[in-house]
Amino acid sequence: MAEHGIWFRRTDVTDRDALIPARYDVVRQSPLCTTLVNDAGVSVGTVEHIMAAIAGCGVHNALIEIDGPEVPIVDGSALPFVRGIMRRGLRRLPARVRAFEVLKSVTVTQGDATATIAPSDVVRIDFHIDFVDPAIGRQSKSLNMSNGSFARELSDSRTFCRQDDVKQMQANGLALGGAPGVNAVVFDGDRVSSPGGLRHSDEPVRHKMLDALGDLALAGAPIVGHYTGTRAGHTLTNQLLRELFATQGAVRMITCDEEMTARLPGSGLVWDEIPEVA
After folding, report:
1. Which of 49, 67, 139, 268 is 20 to 30 A distant from 113 in Cα terms?
2. Is 278 part of a structural domain of the chain?
């Protein structure tokens, strides 16, 4: 249904409101994943990969039914969700797409991490990371997200962690159904300890861009703007959205014509462009 937006429904919750909006202002702060919580206290966590797939496939209205508190990590990327969406197919609705157009640059900073959203006529993401681990090091990448580039360039890039992070994640109740090395790339100093190695030489920065698109999708509509993240994570991107919508004159909602719609993520994506790794 047009104007429905993206919602999650916890099918295992029957004693209170089980609907959770996929929206930035219901995010519970977490450095390791993005968790949504409705007014009844019902939550769904690790939504960033499925939200990236939804945005990257050009889905603007959907109800996602889930029978537990965390979206499955699957292989640690968005690719299984992208392939599932594209295999099922999309239904075009008799309404024009609406989007948020960034009119003013907004920046948020936390320590040595920054996130900026600036005016642009396309959805663009730049990201820069810098890790002490030699196997990761410094990586940068910039992408125009039009014409299915998310699916081609980013969707198969997996979440990653350092060996020391694994126990911390599981102690915090995250990735309990996953196995490091299978559901995430594990780096240990100067080596990649995961079987099979990397899918891309710069897979970590690509995954950070994937996360950023998923977190930006919580705006409630596509954001036509240029996002730049430097050492940014889920918390900082969420803070950026809050600052953007709190800044007078920084953003406005527009109704997209055909030309603008064609420049949004997911437009023009075809099955043959989707990576085969699963």
Report:
1. 49
2. no
Confirm whether 1 is domain-assigned.
no
How confident is the model over 63-72, as pLDDT tens digits? 999 999 999 9
Closest to 84 in 3D by CA, of 75, 92, 93: 75
Domain that holds residue 111: 6-273
In a domain, 32, yes or no: yes
Question: How many independent structural domains does the chain possess?
Answer: 1
234 catalytic residue (yes or no): yes
Q: Considering the entire predicted model, what is its pTM?
A: 0.92
Catalytic residue (one of 49, 60, 207, 234): 234
Q: Which phi and psi angles does 121 have, rounded to 5°?
A: -90, 0
The answer to whether the CB of 53 falls within 8 A of the CB of 85 is yes
Q: What tens digit of pLDDT does each residue of 174-224 get?
A: 655 555 556 889 888 888 987 788 999 999 999 999 999 999 999 999 999
